[in-house]
């Protein structure tokens, strides 16, 4: 076996295969140049899982790690703490050096310090060549068509840096007016922290941050974040601003070559799961090869097992990317509700889960929604719609073809049916005929980058000027919370009129509370899609 790359993926593959099959010779190639520094992050639960197999996997000096159970978000003048349980930051170079040495000490492993520039061929070529040489894998790039590689650049730009200071694990939402600079930071050592700055290109250009030499950029960013850095300098780990590139490979193996870790896939750094996924890849591939089946079958088993897992992780990462990209462009935040939206961009973080883990933070979020302390859940916080004061933010919809004719709203005086019209509707005439409130049906956006002459703020303001009292927005296609509620969230953020999300799915109370607390909608109504017609 040959393993190209001795980072987390390559080292753990070597460790696991050597443990399962100590009879196999493994050549572990480590490139000559040093990779970027700063830190990596993973959960204590995952570390415990790995240590059951490799007890010394994380036996690093205490000075090469940071541990935290909550995260600080600096949002305007507010300092908002929220739970982030059992997380660990590790000094990247120390960790990689440690696991590389563990792998090199395994039976029949030869550590070779050399950059591999081509895949060995001929009679002396290895039986399997594991490409664990990272996102910029030259060996994968040279066979792009064979692997079916696609690389998609994100909209924002980021700079990965280290600071010689122990910082709180935090998100910093700094309003430069216009646009935000967003910082993802965490301690990864007793004397150093990771500090990632992310922004929209227009914000960087508007403030003269986009084309500066790297030393000058380090000084300028350190000055902008002098309070957050407590006066410490910044040391860039990447060559200036760059987009995050999501790598997808249609095929994970070709002949005797197989991809693992970042060479096979990347997930956005905001999910903090890249190293975890790489190690899981390594363990799975080693297990498949150790079974003793023919190499092609083993590689097929590995790909069939891991590709669905990575597909789901990348789908979740796309949601996280979209959330941060949208926030970067807006430059306006709303305290606890923005932080709740940040936390709930990931599907596992629902209202109930966050309330169980961090009741104080969740209570403050609901207080912000209600405008006063309350024990009510978000769906039961009163809402004014036109001249009505609603007791519940869950409405009942009627209609056909996925289009509501009206909504039944719940007030203290009972249920009130309110019509929902389109652009041709005259709300004044409906009110003259007795309607207590009238809604406007707004078409869903086709995608996050949809361009329209009438943006969400214009749509909402024009509807309010015409006499509509609320906006009804169908949920969109997609499996994630961010994608399904994209247009509803845009209009809710505009703030001119209350927004009702029309969901084809009968959402749970927990999901409804999550959507309302995070500002993705003001209300929810279930509007089932029409069943497909039976063939005649």
TrEMBL record:
<protein>
    <recommendedName>
        <fullName>FAD-binding domain-containing protein</fullName>
    </recommendedName>
</protein>
<dbReference type="InterPro" id="IPR036188">
    <property type="entry name" value="FAD/NAD-bd_sf"/>
</dbReference>
<dbReference type="InterPro" id="IPR050631">
    <property type="entry name" value="PheA/TfdB_FAD_monoxygenase"/>
</dbReference>
<keyword id="KW-0520">NAD</keyword>
<keyword id="KW-0560">Oxidoreductase</keyword>
<dbReference type="Pfam" id="PF01494">
    <property type="entry name" value="FAD_binding_3"/>
</dbReference>
<dbReference type="GO" id="GO:0071949">
    <property type="term" value="F:FAD binding"/>
</dbReference>
<dbReference type="InterPro" id="IPR002938">
    <property type="entry name" value="FAD-bd"/>
</dbReference>
<feature type="domain" description="FAD-binding">
    <location>
        <begin position="126"/>
        <end position="313"/>
    </location>
</feature>
<dbReference type="GO" id="GO:0016491">
    <property type="term" value="F:oxidoreductase activity"/>
</dbReference>
């Amino acid at each position: 076996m040959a393993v190209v790359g001795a980072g987390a993926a390559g080292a753990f593959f070597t460790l696991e295969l050597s443990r399962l099959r100590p009879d196999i010779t493994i050549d572990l190639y480590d490139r000559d140049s040093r990779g970027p520094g700063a830190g990596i992050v993973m959960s204590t639960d995952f570390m415990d899982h790995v240590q059951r197999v490799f007890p010394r996997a994380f036996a690093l000096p205490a000075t090469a790690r940071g541990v935290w159970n909550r995260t600080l978000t600096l949002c305007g003048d507010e300092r908002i703490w929220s739970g982030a349980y059992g997380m660990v930051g590790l000094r990247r170079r120390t960790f990689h050096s440690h696991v590389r040495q563990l792998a090199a000490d395994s039976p029949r492993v030869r550590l070779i310090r050399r950059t591999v520039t081509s895949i060995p061929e001929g009679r002396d070529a290895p039986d399997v060549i594991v490409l664990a040489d990272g996102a910029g894998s030259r060996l994968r790039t040279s066979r792009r068509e064979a692997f079916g590689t696609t690389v998609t650049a994100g909209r924002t730009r980021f700079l990965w840096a280290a600071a010689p200071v122990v910082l709180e694990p935090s998100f910093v939402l700094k309003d430069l007016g216009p646009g935000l600079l967003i910082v993802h930071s965490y301690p990864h050592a007793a004397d150093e922290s990771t500090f990632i700055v992310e922004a929209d290109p227009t914000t960087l250009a508007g403030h003269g941050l986009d084309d500066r030499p790297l030393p000058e950029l380090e000084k300028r960013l350190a000055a902008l974040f002098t309070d957050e850095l407590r006066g410490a300098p910044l040391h860039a780990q990447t060559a200036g601003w760059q987009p995050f590139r999501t790598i997808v490979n249609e095929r994970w193996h070709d002949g005797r070559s197989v991809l693992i870790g970042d060479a096979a896939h990347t997930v956005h750094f905001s999910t903090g799961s890249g190293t975890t996924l790489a190690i899981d890849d390594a363990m799975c591939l080693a297990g498949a090869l150790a079974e003793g089946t023919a190499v092609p079958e083993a590689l097929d088993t590995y790909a069939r097992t891991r590709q669905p897992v990575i597909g789901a992780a990348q789908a979740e990462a796309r949601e996280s990317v979209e959330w941060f990209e949208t926030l970067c462009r807006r430059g306006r935040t709303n305290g606890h509700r923005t932080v709740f939206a940040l936390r709930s961009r990931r599907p596992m973080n629902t209202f109930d889960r966050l309330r169980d883990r961090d009741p104080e933070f969740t209570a403050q979020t609901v207080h912000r929604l209600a405008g006063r302390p309350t024990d009510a859940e978000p769906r039961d916080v009163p809402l004014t719609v036109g001249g009505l004061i609603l007791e519940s933010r869950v409405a009942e919809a009627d209609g056909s073809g996925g289009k509501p004719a009206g909504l039944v709203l719940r007030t203290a005086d009972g249920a009130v049916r309110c019509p929902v019209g389109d652009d041709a509707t005259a709300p004044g005439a409906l009110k003259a005929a007795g309607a207590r409130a009238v809604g406007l049906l707004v078409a869903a956006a086709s995608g996050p980058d949809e361009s329209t002459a009438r943006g969400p703020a214009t749509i909402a303001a024009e509807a309010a000027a015409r006499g509509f009292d609320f906006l009804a927005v169908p949920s969109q296609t997609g499996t994630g919370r961010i994608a399904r509620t994209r247009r509803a969230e845009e209009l809710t953020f505009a703030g001119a009129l209350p927004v009702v999300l029309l969901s084809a799915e009968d959402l749970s109370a927990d999901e409804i509370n999550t959507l309302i607390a995070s500002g993705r909608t003001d209300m929810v109504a279930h509007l089932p899609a029409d069943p497909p017609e039976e063939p005649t």
